[in-house]
Amino acid sequence: MAAVVAALTATGGGSVEPPAAERSATTSPPAAQSRSLPGPMVVVGFDGLDWVLLDRLIGEGRCPTFARIRRDGAWANLASHSPLVSPLVWTSIGTGRRPEVHGIVDFVVRDAETGHEAPVGSGMRRVHAFWNVLSAAGRSVNVVGWWATFPAEPINGVMVSERPFTQLAELGVPRLEPGDVHPPHLLSEVRANLVPIDEVGFEVVRDYVDLDRAEFERRVAAASGLDNPYQERVHHLRKIIAATRGVFNLGRWLVGQHPADLTALYVEGTDTIGHRFAPCLPPRLSWVDEGDYRMFRRTMERYYELCDRELGQLMAAAPADTTWIVTADHGFHTGAARPAVPADDFGGAPSRWHRLTGVFMAMGPHVKPGPIDHADIYDLCRTLLWLQGAPVSDELEGRELVELMDGAWAAERPPQRVASYQDLPRPWQSARVPAAGTDRESLDELRALGYVTGDEAEAAAAAGPTESDTAEINRAFLAQERGDVAAAIRHLEKALEIRPDSVHAMLELSEAYRRSGDVRLALGWLAKALETDHPALPTWIPVVLVRESIVLGRLEGALQVLGELPERWKKLPSYQTALGIAALAVGRKAEARAAFESALAMDPAELDAFDGIMRLREDFPDLGWEAHLKAAHGAVETDLRATRRLAWMCASHGLYRDAESCLRAVLASDPNDTYSLRGLALTLHALGRDAEAAEVEKRCPSSAPGDPDALTTPLPPWPVMESGRSTGTVVRTPGSSAR
């Protein structure tokens, strides 16, 4: 330990001195460091804060605080990593380690000591976070609301866990227990800064929602009688506002009464507000109820304005020489084109609403203004430790963002290095509190949100001392992201051992085997998923089933499976599309045409049927494929994924101008979508606009993180155009036009 402690030398700032009985043993006070630091720092983490909406509101003059930081400071698109699950990502930000290493891989784990299911907490983390390292270095540090920090850890400062800010439980004053606060003697002061939901009444809510007092009172009364208050969005909005105000109240209290070298706040509401209200942003999505759209169309924008005001008040309360870092773990789809699934259906695919690009901004006395070319969530921990003069472990992911600071300042303060923090004390592992009512209420909230189900709890109990199936599925995503398909398969198989009826795991396993090249097993697991007839099964299964069967030469078997499906499947356009693909494979073109046209009559956005029509256009001159193309454009214009798929369809059939139009629509809503950037570059090359293509290529990340949708809805590979032909599955015919 001596070598590590010797490296942890720094000057300390103000700190909270608890009673002697509450002091934690970390390291002996280290020697003072001679070099100066940039002054106090405040980090504000907004979960899911989105650049697209934020930039629009900045341009409209509605977020002056964010505008000031971006104008006078540094900023970057922050690359995130899937799975975009808050406990995983924010613990990665706090530790600089991958989830497989830091150990937080789900919302809930099975406690090794008690054998009971419990929300993730600080005792389950395996590695040091920045607040541990800074405390050991003699720095003072405050942390409020960070994921997986219950019970609050002994640090050189104040820690308030995430539990007081839950947004469903407690209709009155938020519950606060000794385990929520370190040091515990500050419990009453922390409680005084929390905001009861009753303080968020009609006069506040009407600025966010278009409703009158009678409707407001009706909804509030209804919420109090619900087993799942999450069902009532106005009530949930009140909790989001109350929790957000509470976080910033504590921030102002800390910088005023308990200043520290580094104060870090976490705001969950920016993500929750997106899941509840992003579908209601203008323009109206085709599937959003008109009444909901009118009532909630301004809710998310107003909440961003609230965050801007609260951040401005916090900045006004802090010393003038404070260095500010504002960041978000990921973005949120807020543009004109958004996912075509409910954002708050947590039993479905809510993560499809997350964008892999988060926000990073910084401003302070030594911050160099301007854009930063590349920043990653794993850069944040390293950068915070470097700026505070603490040593940076070689085990951490990422890099220090040295370009963030003035060149001369940074050159005089190179990062200190240590091999590991393994010899440092681990005070969080001894900060255990008996799981009384708090864990139960947190579990109830996670169940209400759909993150945990009763079935999962029963499966975990039956499986013995192990983690949930969702933890193994998350590990599979992590393995897939680093290119280890074999490991992904192992984790998914383990998920199915824990919960044999997990349709999600079956579908992921089918896709993993497809990626590994084993089409036979991919088809087998797809069929197993289909046999469950689970109501959440994706509608594209019949199409993929037929395509994979054709590859294996087992089309007759697939048709038999289709014929035995319940009637509800046979009414889907994807079922007709699957029949059309099967007919086309055996040369029955007229039958295929009829099936494809039937599918498109039911849904013009059935793009696999449109692809089938395009394949038949030379066989049937009267096909009228242009009308189908026009209808498809209109049907997918607000559906982000479908617009991207239509672009691929158009490019693969030589309709490059239509592909360009679709891709630009996607990029207007998601400027950092890797597939669309690369596809646009290829399309522009095909159109002979090489200079434009080169500019687009500059925007493509050199090593982009994985697509969170990749394992749930497979997309064909983007065709590579060469000499007017496609090296993909479709050859550009002489009759096709480069539209």
Mind telling me which CATH architecture of the largest domain this is?
3-Layer(aba) Sandwich
For CATH, the homologous superfamily of the largest domain is named as Alkaline Phosphatase, subunit A
Count of individual beta strands:
18
Largest sheet: 10 strands, mixed
Structure write-up:
With 739 residues, this protein is of the alpha/beta class. It folds into four domains: 413 residues, Alkaline Phosphatase, subunit A, CATH 3.40.720; 83 residues, Tetratricopeptide repeat domain (Serine Threonine Protein Phosphatase 5, Tetratricopeptide repeat); 85 residues; 103 residues, Serine Threonine Protein Phosphatase 5, Tetratricopeptide repeat (Alpha Horseshoe). It has 32 helices and 18 strands. Strands 1, 2, 5, 6, 7, 8, 9, 12, 13 and 14 form a ten-stranded mixed beta sheet that branches. A two-stranded antiparallel ribbon has the order 3-4. Strand 3 and strand 4 form a beta hairpin. The chain starts with a helix and ends in a 13-residue tail after the last strand. The N terminus and C terminus are likely disordered.
